[in-house]
Amino acid sequence: MITMKDVIKEGHPTLRSVAKEVEIPASKEDKETLRKMMEFLHNSQNPETAEKYGLRPGIGLAAPQINVNKRMIAVLVNDENGNLHEYALYNPKIVSHSVEMTQLENGEGCLSVDRDVPGLVPRYARITVQATSIDEEEISIRLKGLTAIVFQHEIDHLNGIMFYDRIVENNDPFKKSIPSSFK
Ligand code: 4LI
Ligand code: NI
Question: Its catalytic activity (predicted)?
Answer without folding.
Answer: N-terminal N-formyl-L-methionyl-[peptide] + H2O = N-terminal L-methionyl-[peptide] + formate
